[in-house]
Every structure is written in C-alpha cells, then in structure tokens.
Amino acid sequence: MEDCWSDHSEQMLTIRSIFLYLDRTYVLQSANVRSLWDMGLVIFREYLLQHKQVESTTTAGILQLIEKERLGESVDRPLLRNLLRMFSALGLYAESFEKQFLVETAEFYATESSRLLQEVDVPSYFKHVEDRLQEESDRCNYYLDASTRKQLVLTVEKQLIEEHANMQLDRGFASLMDENRLSDLARLYSLLDRVNMLDQLKGSLVAYVKVTGSAIVMDEEKDKEMVQSLLSMKAKVDHILVKAFQNNETFTSSLKEAFEHFINQRQNRPAELIAKYVDAMMRSGNKTASDEELESLLDRLLVLFRYIQGKDVFEAFYKKDLAKRLLLSKSASIDLEKSMIMKLKAECGSQFTNKLEGMFKDIDLSQDIMTQFRQSPQFQDRLPSNMELNVSVLTTGYWPTYTPMEVRLPEELTTCQDLFKDFYVSKHNGRRLMWQSSLGHCVMRVQFPKGLKELHVSLFQCVVLMLFNDAESLSYKEIEEATGIESTELQRTMLSLACGKPSCRILLKSPKSKEIAADDDKGQLHSDERNGGGEPADKRARVPGPPVPDRCSNRENNEDAKKPQPQSADHRTLPTAQVCRETAGPEETHREPDRSRVRRKGPEEFPTLQLPRLRRGTGGNRNGAPRMLSATTAVCTAPFIRLPLLGFLPCCVRQRFVDGPHHGRLERSFEDPG
Q: Do the bridges between strand 633-638 and strand 609-610 make them parallel or antiparallel, or are there none, so unpaired?
C-alpha cells in the first residue's frame, strides 16, 4: 500500500509540474474547479472506498505495528508515518483509523494495568505509567496526527491512572511517606494532577498524618519523645509538601486541620510537654545548639503551639518554667527568652504575655534593690564579709503561686533575714515580709578526707545538715521537732540525703541499704573511704533535691489569672531577683523526678541517722567567723498584696575528721568562696 501511495504521489507531482501554469491561473480563477493534486486525491480515495478490504487491511496492519512497538519490538516507523499521512490527506484518518486506534489503545492499557497491579509495587507502577505517557507523546510527535494527541492521552490516563488511583493510594501511599521517597511522591502528585484527583491524594495525606500523629500523641510510654517526634514529623511533612506536592495551598490548609485533630486527642498533655521542651532548650545547660539554631527551633515549636487548644495550660507550665529559669539564672540567653515572649505576643496578643513580660521587669528592677542593699553601710556592715545575700522580690500577679512551707531556721539564717527585712521596711514603710522557704538554696564548701568539696543543697537539706553541728546522731523525730518541717517534706529530704547515690549521700547509716527500713538499727558513722558514701566524688557536687511534686499549682494559676488582683493605694509592685544555682543533678535538670523509685515511709520507719559532727568554735571558727548561712526563700507582703521573695546565701564550710575511722567529728571553719 505504501508503494502504491508513493507511486501515485510521484505521478501527480509530475502531472502538476506539466500543467503548472493552468493550475495557477485557470484553477485559481474558477471557484468550483479543483486543483490537479486535489483531483488525484479524490480519485485515490474513491478507489479505497470501493475496495473496503484494502482499507481495512491497511488499518489493521498499522494497528498491529503500533501494538508491536508498544510491546517493545522494533518497527518501521517511517512506514507508519507515510501511511497515516495518506489517511490524513485522503480525509479517512478519523473514520478509518483514529476511532479504532483509540478503542484498541484502551483495551491494551486496561489489560496491561490489570497485569501490572499483580506484578509490581506502587512506585514501579507509576513509573511505568509515566514512561507510557511519554511513549505515546513521542508517537504523536513522529507519526500520529496532531488531532489524536488529546484523545490518546486521555485514554491512557483513564486506563492507567484514573481507574486504579484510589486502590494504589490505599496500597502504597503510606509506605512512600514512611520512606520519604520524594521523587515517587512528586511523580504521584503529577500523575494525579493530570486526572484531577488531587483531592484523593490530599485525603490520603491527611489520613496518614492523623494516623501517624495519633500514634505519637497517644503513646504514653514515649511522652518524653513526643515533642521531638512531632517536630520531626512536621519537618518531614513540610519538606514533602514543598518538594513533592508543589507547596499546594489546599494541602497546607488540610494539614493544619489534621495536626489540630490528633494533637488535641490527649487534652492538655501536649501543651504541657511542649512547654517542658521549650524549658529544656532554653536552659543554660543545653549545649547542643547555637542561638541561631535555638531561634529556628522556637519557630518550629511555635507552629506546634498554634495547633493546641489548651493554650492556657501551655501558659501555666511555661510561666512556671520561665520563673525557675529566671530565678535560678539558668536561662541560656535572655535575648532568646524575650524573643520567645515576642513570638507568643504576636501569636496570642499582649494579654497572653502580660504576666510573662512583667517577670522580666521584676528581674531588672530587683537587681536595683540588691544594689541598694549592698551599698547601704548601715546593713552591709552587719553582714559577715565572707557571706553574700541575694533576695528576690516577686510580684504576685506575675509569678506562679507556690505553696508556703514552714521551717525553723537556724540563728544565722534568721539574722540575715532580719537584716534584709529591716532594710526593705526602711525603704517601703508599712510592708511586712514573709519568707517562702521551699525555693531556697545554699552552697557549702566542706573539707572531706579526699579534699575540699562544694555542696549545692536546698534550704531544707541545709537546715537538716546544720543540726549535726551539735549532735553526732539524731532520730527522725528529733530532726522533725528541731526543724519544724512538714512531715511529708521532711521524709523526702531525708531520702535525698541518706538514700541517694553514693556520690551524693551525705548522711550515713548502718546497716547500709538503698532504702530506709523500719527495722534498721541506730545509725553509725562510717568515715572510712572503703565503706563508700558520705563524701561526694566530684569537687563540686550537686546533692539531688528530694523527689517532690511540683509545688506550683497550675489550676490555681489558671483560676487566679482570671481574677482581678487586689491593690493597695500606697503599694507599688516590686520586681523580683534571684541569683542562685540549680540544685538538681544533671540528670534531673530537665525532667520530672522518677517517683516510682522513691519509697515514702512514715516517721517511725526512719532510723537514727548520723553526720560527721561540726564542732562549734568560740566565735564560729578559728578566725572568729560566724556560723554558716543557708539560702532561703521568702514572701514579701504588703497590705492586701503578697509578693514572693527569694534568697541565696553562699558560704564556706570546712570540715576535718579528728577521730577514728568509724566515729568522728568535724571541725569547721569559714572562708570566702572567692
């Protein structure tokens, strides 16, 4: 057939050349007269129409060659191009070829897609679809008529994509997301976009995010990893959204709803953990990131913050943790702290951050109070030269509410409190000071057999230890009566001093055990190094604080925040300051204490405990220095207003064994830590 068409074309060109003048003059001037070339096409077309077998055989041969090419065989593509151009020239392309070609194309790809679904995985399937579409596009460019392109592409897309898209999404989308296969996801997005099925892809993405996010949020055993897992998941989804899904706005909106759905399945817990995570990152002990990295991390955490519904819960925990960082000077960067406040202000408004901003004002103004106190000869001369007192004045409306804890302080601590009280009252007439004891801290320098050690202890721990200045051993009842500490708090304090890690176990008891049992005998002093315990291993030791629940009531904070604060006509809200060090050990600094490892006992279960005796000199030590002072925490009150007041009193204690290895006493003296 190709030869016949070629001969006809050559002969018609020859005839046209002979009668070229006639073709260009007479034919052009006569409307109803065809050109020589057109007359030749009409004659050839009539011949084919009269011989249907020739036409059908030619069409079948063309379709057979195309099918062989689709199956990977090599065919004569110029032959196909000439024959199809013949059909186009004769006006038989659509009727004789295209209609049947599209039908067989649909059948071919329907059969192929069914086979591939059983043989290949989802990524391979869509890669094959992409290749097939490119092959059909090449055919249109080389030998198919341009009018066929649109119908051909629609046919292939329908059979290979549209008919199986939902099944393929259910079958393999989750694995593509889990493995972060960006190229395959981008291909999937592109192919589904061709058939207007992006809504189905969006639905699969939302379902995946909800399932994955819910698994993270609802896994209570991995609460410590929840925030980091959510951050990683959010970063991964955002990266896929940009790189694979062309940052589709409808996808972004749907993802926001998906995150809001699963992150609020556990009411308030994600908000609490996000606040704790921010606290861990903002502490000065965090050496894992630079300021720029922390700034970026805060932006990512703020995105999670937007999703939570319990923003008041986040505020309560964030406020409590911020207070600890500011009061204990544990913030990694004040600039970062203020940056975070500005981010929260932009997100939730000035009312949300009003108290948080007030805390920073308190810190700044409180430093002025302590500067005035240190520069006041009237009061500073009455303090020993080797002691330093730092007191923080807090505005009640800004800071968390702490449960007051009673304690009977030693004379040295009471003296320091009275000095500051006299100074403060002289500056602010008509106000009364009350001390919050539960937040006090102290630094003690002690001479152990292996050398000088520096102990970081809480106020309650310090008060207990100072009792052993006058006694070699004390029972629990005696300690309770001497200190006046509430029973539950005292039990926790004794556990931390006598049953902690050997490197931080200051009180020694016999027989040795990890717990204090009711049938233990009276404690004996073991100062021999071979017995272990009684002396910290490090030169600077943090004695872990007692495993106490957080004394800051979040519910109370939330309720108080909604109530107006009473004011006095002659009262000015005072700033707060705190310059002290964290007493928790490194492992407790950024996490809640593991209360499952602490066995609480009643007073009758505590044996008599013993600490190396601190012998009191005539004037305190050989140089006549006064006795050791401990850090305390106070509450300053004015008419109708209660303001927390925190203090920190570092001092030096030197102790030396003077008796045998099993019974001894300590001689202590004071010197300036600096």
A: unpaired
Query: What pLDDT, on the 0 to 100 scale, is given for residue 140?
Result: 92
**Host H or E run for residue 392:** strand 390-393
For residues 674 and 671, give the distance between their C-alpha atoms in angstroms, rounded to a whole number. 9
Residue at token pair 């041969």? 61
CA 504/CA 495 separation, integer angstroms: 11
Closest CA to 670 of 632, 627, 609: 627
- Give the best-scoring range by mean pLDDT among 22-26, 211-215, 399-403, 541-545: 211-215
Could you give the CA distance from residue 322 to residue 281 in angstroms, rounded to a whole number?
Answer: 12
Are 618 and 406 in contact by the 8 Å Cβ rule? The answer is: no
> H/E element holding 634?
strand 633-638
Residue 464 has pLDDT above 50, yes or no: yes
pLDDT tens sequence across 138-153: 999 999 999 999 999 9
- Residue 127 burial by Cβ neighbours in a 10 Å radius (0-12, 13-18, 19+): middle
Q: What is the rounded distance in angstroms from the CA atom of residue 252 to the CA atom of residue 39?
A: 63
**pLDDT for position 301:** 92
Give mean pLDDT, residues 320-332.
Answer: 86
Distance between CA 57 and CA 365 in Å, rounded?
99
Which ranges of 349-469 would DSSP assign to H, the alpha helix?
A: 350-374, 377-380, 411-427, 459-466
pLDDT at 212 over 90: yes
* Angle of helix 334-348 versus helix 350-374 axis, rounded to 10: 150
Asked if 454 and 378 touch (Cβ cutoff 8 Å), the reply is no
- Name 477's Cβ contacts closer than 8 Å, sequence gap at least 6: 603
- Map tokens 């925030």 to a residue: 227
The answer to whether the beta carbons of residues 148 and 101 sit under 8 Å apart is yes
| pTM of the predicted model as reported, rounded to 2 decimal places | 0.69
* Predicted confidence (pLDDT) at residue 305 exceeds the cutoff of 90: yes
Distance CA(112)–CA(118), nearest Å, equals 10
Pairwise CA distance, residues 643 & 424, whole Å = 13
- One-letter amino acid for residue 628 of the chain: M
Distance (Å, whole) CA 368 – CA 359: 15
DSSP SS3 for 611: coil
